[in-house]
Amino acid sequence: MPRTSDDTPKPMPRRALRIGAWIAVVAVVAAVLALVIDDVAASRAEHRLAQSVQASPGVEFEPDVIMSGFPFLARSGSGEFSSILISADGVPIPGCTGPHPCRSTVDARLQDARIGDTGEVNPRTVLHAQAMKVETRIDSPTLGRLMHITDLYINTPAPDDKVGGGGPGDGLLERTDGIMISGTVPLPGSPATQNGYPPSAAAYTAPKVKVSVSARVFVVDGRIHIEATDFYDGPEEHYSAEVPEELHSAVLKSFSMVLPRFQMAWGHTAKHALSRGSDLVASGEVGPVAVRPIDYAKPLPDRS
User: Fold this and answer.
1) Which residue from 211, 229, 223 is spatially nearest to 280, judged by alpha carbons?
2) Do residues 208 and 202 lie in contact, with contact meaning Cβ atoms separated by under 8 Å?
3) CA 23 centroid distance within chain
4) What angle do CA 229, 231, 232 make, to 5 degrees?
5) Fewer CB within 10 Å of terminal CB in the chain, N or C?
6) Got the DSSP string for 182-243?
7) Widest Cα–Cα separation across the chain
8) Are 96 and 79 a contacting pair, CB within 8 Å?
9) Dihedral over Cα of 295, 90, 87, 76: its sign
């Protein structure tokens, strides 16, 4: 049967198309606005907790805080989050040479955390968590100050059995042994400094040597032990000056030390040590916990 003009499909009126387009735009804008509001609320709550942690005596600068859980507004009343990460830079540690204190980064990750209404968090709010991992890390220059090796540098080589290890895809490598430590140390009979200059300075003319050693790290009674086990001869770029055999032991001893006790979050004790990239890390785990922001970094007890 031939189609008449009345049977021809009629195009959708322009008015209906415009209404549909506006509905889509409004929906997108509403979704974006909801995300922005949620993000702003999360940022304010994180800032509030950060300020509460900064009230702790050992925290001089506002720490970074990340509360994990989306959407945030649905969790803000109960304060229940899958994890909360706190990272405080510039926390002092004892035992450094020089006029300025050594500083560390003190981290804590609260797992399955409950902190109550995020709008009511203050320095004395009790934070509950089923588990907590604490980490304190120092960089190479800080370790050099602790060990009195001005130009000290830590390197974490890739595992010996991993071909091509250490590339960008591996991220920051971690090791407890086979760690490479490089620096300039005085040979036996040479002074620790000469006219105020350390062995790494050109003005230091007494016998010295710049080498790379292989070391392991471990924890005993909450303190990191660094033990140089041999001179490094692996594939990483390193220093390999000739050291007379009779001086091997003395030079390796210069790269070995028991470090002062690090400040750990909420006074917990380090259980493990490792190198991560060019940092030295002390870590521990505990749980469940109930802690207050104001106690995040208390003064260390006066003990060696």
Assistant:
1) 223
2) no
3) 46
4) 105
5) N
6) EEEEEPTTS-S-BTTB-TTSTT--SSEEEEEEEEEEEEETTEEEEEEEEE--SSS---B---
7) 114
8) no
9) positive
Q: What is the DSSP annotation of the chain?
A: -PPPGGGSPPPPPHHHHHHHHHHHHHHHHHHHHHHHHHHHHHHHHHHHHHHHHHTSTT--SPPEEEEE-SSSHHHHTTTEEEEEEEEEEEEEES---SSS-EEEEEEEEEEEEE---GGG--TTPPEEEEEEEEEEEEEHHHHHHHHT-TT-EEE-PPPTT-TTTTSGGG-S-EESSSEEEEEEEEPTTS-S-BTTB-TTSTT--SSEEEEEEEEEEEEETTEEEEEEEEE--SSS---B----GGGHHHHHHHT-EEPPPPP-GGGPPP-EEEEETTEEEEEEEE-SEEE-GGGTTPPPPS--
Residue type, 279: D
Beta-carbon contacts of residue 27 (< 8 Å; ≥ 6 apart): none
User: pLDDT averaged over consecutive 10-residue blocks of the chain (304 residues)?
Assistant: 56 67 70 63 86 94 88 73 94 78 94 90 94 96 94 88 50 87 95 94 95 97 96 89 92 96 93 95 94 87 49
Q: Which amino acid is at 7?
A: D
